[in-house]
Amino acid sequence: MLTLQGENGRGLTTQGAMVDLNNSGIEGTATKPVLDAACMAELRALDPDGKAQLVKRVLATYQASLAKLVGQLQLARAEGAWDQVSRVAHTLKSSSASIGALALSGLCADIERLLRAGDSASALPLLEQFQAEVSRVDDAVGQTLQHLEAAAS
Amino acid sequence: MSLHHGVSLEATDRRPTVLLVDDDEVNLLMTAAALRDRGFDITSTTGGEEALTRLASWTPDVVVLDAIMPGLDGFETCIALRNMPGFDNVPVLMLTGLDDEASINRAYQVGATDFFVKATQWSLLAGRLRYLLRASRTRQELERSKAKLARAQDLARMGSFDWWQEEGRSFVNGLELSEEGLRVFGYGPDDRVNLRDMLRMIAPTDREPLVRLARQILYQVSVIATDVPMTLPDGRFRIIHVEAEPEFDEHGHCCAYTGIVQDVTDRRIAEDRIRHLANYDALTNLPNRRQLIWRAERALEFGRRLGHQVALLLIDLDRFKVINDTLGHAAGDELLMEVAFRLRGCVRHCEQLFEGVIETAGSRSHRTLEAVGRLGGDEFVALLPEVADEADAQRVATRILEALREPVVVAGQDCFATASVGIALFPRDGNTVADLLRNSDVAMYAVKSQGRNDALVYTPRLAGRGREKLALESALHKAIERDELVLYYQPKVDVASGKMVGVEALMRWRRGDLLIQPADFIPVAEETGLIVPMSEWLRRFHRREHAQPHVRAHRPDRADLGRRARRRHPAQHDPAGDHRDGPDEGPAARDPVAAPAHRDRRADRRRRLRHRLFVARLPHVAADRRGQDRPQLRARPGRAATESCGCYRDHRAREVARPQGGGRRCRKPTAAGRAVRRGLFADAGFPVQQAAAAGGHPGLDGAGRAAPQGSMDSCELQGADRYR
User: A107 to chain B nearest CA, in Å?
Assistant: First the structure.
């Protein structure tokens, strides 16, 4: 499927990737894909011929920073350092949006806003959701990376 | 400061460099990729500290900062960056969240150039960056031209100002000067100056007309261009040029003036100096020829209009050249200065410089034209713009002669600087300045010829004489140029043996068809000094002649031509000392400085020279117009060649000479003690040039060779063309 990328152009490939991601065994009630297809397309468009392996590098970077930031967030949350939690949420908000993890990005935005307003109580349930969404995104990213690896080899 | 930076930016083919700072590595990666794709050269860093480290050794064209970062955030980084030298004008774009109004405001506070909401719309970001770069470049160019302007204004001692109407007040109160403008008045950049301060720097006498002028300008809404003399707060006197144009509001009303102030003192001083140099004589500080003629012309205009007479007195110092020659030019200058000073006291001399139109305030304003000026050399002019009659002018002339009667002490000596004054009156003696100058000159020359140290009013009688002489004089000038002078050789014959012992050269002037005798042109040549170039001409001619080998071989036993034609330089002492036969000779006559009344030594010399050159050698036979003191030599009847140039053939004839009257003069003992006669024939010799020009002479053969005849062995004119 990924071999189509170079030959058939974005539309088809995006479609394919989306289908692929949706069928890749990620359970979830959401009808929306974890990674927004349009955003992924934009990402791919930055490196159309794949020479710079930008998609791969971005996703790998995202995965690494996700693990790091989630760790920081959990630590801060345990310490009740809501400022710190808010800042991590801010960073994750924009980078998640960049790769199309729009649900996660939205959650981060809400958490950041509530915490900045000092409403940590309202933020707590969202943080639970956040945790679940993080693992979904992480899985999706991991799978996409695997596909990219497979296609490259 | 960032000038070098601006220059590097002008290289348009270079990719603009961007420092990208974002802690979000995903975003950093994507933004970098997107911008690289759009032609930017990206350097990425993940934090403020790292960014500042990079900037310590490198200046990007633009910096993109994420606002929210752990550690040093975008705002703090921006503040730190702005404090670094050379970074005050580097554009900084702050990346903020979509709904983060606080960040946007703060971004501007910390000195960010602009903000951009984080998004994946890369083209928008790239567009914004390009805009920032262009704005930065424009700003740098502006800064540069501002710096240039400031420098240029500084050099020109110039600055700009605005003058406007403040709310609810009369027009002329708002005043703002640029830094350079403040400097023109000696103020620092932080000083505040208002109009009142400015007016206080102007002398009260100048202030009122200036305020009047300003009111008029404002009323007419015209352009301001005026020079204002001011005394600056530090006490310096300066002339400030103010130039401004009105500015109009949307209703077309003049709402302000904007313009420049410039210190033009030096220029004005230079201009005044130039004007003074152009109109005044540098030595005596009297009006020069130009200024004098201008004044005279104005005076004639007034005279014409008001119907009065104008007098022009030409004052020429007597024997000034003698003083110059004997005591040196420095002494001459000293004398001229003293004379100028005295002359100034003889008239109501007005120093004022006139140019353009003189203000005709009052009917007597032409009186201010009265002056004494220096035409050049030792010639002065007194202009009397209104005289009742010639007696008026004569009175002033008398005053002038009186003033010069006292000796002038120059170089430690008393000198008598008398003058000859020629007077001409408008309108009687001329209608133009040129006419008056010429006629006063005629009168002045008449004084000179009558013994100097006097004044004469012009009369047409004087002019008639002068005009004739003038015509002769100018023709004589041309005679030398046109080679109209001819030499006639006149054989000298030993009376005892009848043999010719030499020739003498006589000068004639071939003026058209006429052959003019020396008596008619030598006095003029002597008077005008043309005798000097004439003598030189003669000497050159003689030298050429003697350069011919055969002539040297057959040289006459007396080289009359060479010796007699020797021009004596005025400074040289007469080596022979054998000409002190004049009545004025003697020590007193030789010292004109101490005895100014004595005759000019140089004139004496000229006269003597003339005497030697011509008078003693004009023994015309038939056409002698000089009377009985001339040697009268008669040719033997039948032999006398009366036709022109026919003399040569007859030289062999032995002449019987009978001196008449003052014949003593022509009898000169030769070395052998023989009497020699010259000029045997009617036309007294033959023209040397003519002989050569004709390619032959009746007495010469076809080759121009002298016919070997008679006793001409001492002066064979072989190859006469060589005499040319």
Answer: 15
**Other beta carbons within 10 Å of B669:** 9
* Euclidean distance between CA atoms B81 and B87, whole angstroms: 6
* Beta-strand relationship, B500-511 and B686-687: unpaired
Measured between CA atoms, the residue of chain A closest to residue B25 is A61
Count of CB pairs separated by less than 8 Å, A with B: 48
- Helices A120-152 and A10-22, axial angle in degrees (round to 10): 120
User: What is the CATH architecture of B3-149?
Assistant: 3-Layer(aba) Sandwich (3.40)
- The minimal CB distance from B30 to the residues A46, A65, A90 is found for A46
Which pTM was predicted? 0.46
CATH of the domain at A73: 1.20.120.160
Structure confidence at residue B663 (pLDDT): 36
Reported as a single tens digit per residue, the pLDDT across B158-171 is: 899 988 876 666 65
Beta bridge partners of B314: B381, B422
Cis peptide before B427 (omega within 30 of 0): yes
Query: Are the beta carbons of A75 and B6 closer than 8 angstroms?
Result: no
Q: What is the pLDDT of residue B633?
A: 38
Kindly indicate the confidence band of residue B632, based on its pLDDT and cuts at 50, 70 and 90.
Answer: very low
**Residues B180, B188: Cα–Cα separation, whole Å:** 9
> Which CATH code is given to the segment(s) B282-458?
3.30.70.270
CA nearest neighbour of B401 among B442, B360, B455, B362: B455
Let me know if B307 is exposed, middle or buried by CB neighbors in 10 A (0-12, 13-18, 19+): exposed
Rounded percentage of chain B residues whose pLDDT exceeds 90: 25
8 Å CB contact between B56 and B144: no
Q: Which two tokens stand for residue B293?
A: 């003629």
Please, are residues B206 and B229 in contact by the beta-carbon 8 Å criterion? yes
- CA neighbor of B466 nearest in space, from B483, B442, B436, B488: B442
Reported as a single tens digit per residue, the pLDDT across B535-553 is 888 888 777 776 765 554 4
Chain A residues close to B120, C-beta within 8 Å:
39, 42, 97-98
Residue type present at position B476:
L
Contact (CB, 8 A) for B632 and B660: yes
Please give the structure tokens belonging to residue B704: 């121009």
* Cβ contact B52:B8 at 8 Å: no
For A62, the closest chain B residue by CA position comes to: B26
Counting residues of chain A whose pLDDT is more than 90, the rounded percentage is: 33
CB proximity list for A16: less than 8 A, separation 6 or greater:
A1, A2, A4
B503-537: b (≥16 Cβ within 10 Å) or e: bbbbbbbbbeeeebbbeebbebbbbbebbbebbeb
DSSP conformation class of B700: B
Give the range of the structural domain holding residue A106, as residue numbers without chain letter. Answer: 3-152
What's the CA gap between A96 and A107, in Å, rounded? 10
- For chain A, the domain total comes to 1
Instruction: Tell me the domain boundaries of chain B.
Output: 3-149, 156-269, 282-458, 481-723
| Separation CA B317–CA B185 (nearest Å) | 52
- The answer to whether B640 and B666 are in contact (CB under 8 A) is no
pLDDT confidence bin for A111, thresholds 50/70/90: very high
Domain spanning B156-269 has what CATH number?
A: 3.30.450.20
Task: Find, among B55, B56, B70, the residue nearest to B17 by Cα.
Answer: B55
Which helix (H) or strand (E) segment is B440 a member of? helix B433-449
Beta strands B41-45 and B17-21 are parallel
- Tell me if B25 and A57 make a contact (CB, 8 A cut-off): no
Residue B355: the pLDDT is 62
CA-based nearest distance A61→chain B, Å: 6
Give the H or E element holding residue B477: helix B460-481
Summarize pLDDT for B603-612 with one digit per residue, the tens: 555 555 444 4
The DSSP bridge partners found for residue B587 are: none
